[in-house]
Amino acid sequence: MARRVVTGLNAAGKSCVVIDGEIPAVSEVGGVAWHTDSHPVDNSGSEDAAPAEFSFDLMHAGSTFMIHRYVPGQGEFWHATDTTDYIVMLEGEVTLLLEAGEVTLRKGDLCVDRGINHCWRNDSGADAVAAIIAIPARPIGKGRTV
């Protein structure tokens, strides 16, 4: 998993690092680095906002920042969420399957997934890793499975 550094304020009101360590794993394929429950976000406090387990319910308010590992040969899971997802490929490559085509994303590529029906497939033979920020959005159409 990846290192996570979270800033905040110390008891004297000075900027500091409040968390420095690995992102807590929520499954064998990823972890949630941070979650907020509303907009604007309340930046007070120094509690860890990473949930102990992943749930699509996390995507109904605020924002969710996660790391996901795409394992070669994993089963296809078609889904659509009511979110805008900002995806940054950190390692490897993965194919984004859409109802009308597909595109392969590689290390360094960015993707903005706007709540459409889609699926991910890893044909590369090696793990692929992405950083994903999900923000609730109004739905755009059919295909809601989540």
How does this structure look, described?
- With 146 residues, the chain is an all-beta fold.
- Helices cover 0% and strands 49% of the residues.
- The chain contains no helices and 11 strands.
- A 6-stranded antiparallel sheet has the order 3-4-5-11-6-9, with no helix packed on it. A 3-stranded antiparallel sheet has the order 8-7-10, with no helix packed on it.
- β1 and β2 form a beta hairpin.
- The mean pLDDT is 85.
Estimate the mean pLDDT confidence. Answer: 85
Q: In what range is the share of β-strand residues?
A: over 45%
Largest sheet: 6 strands, antiparallel
- Number of DSSP E strands: 11
| Rg of Cα set | 16 Å
Describe the global form. Answer: globular
- Helical content stands at under 10%
- What's the order of the H and E elements? EEEEEEEEEEE
| Class per helix and strand makeup | mainly beta
How are the strands ordered across the major sheet? 3-4-5-11-6-9
Low-confidence stretches: none
Q: Total helix count?
A: 0
End-to-end distance: 26 Å
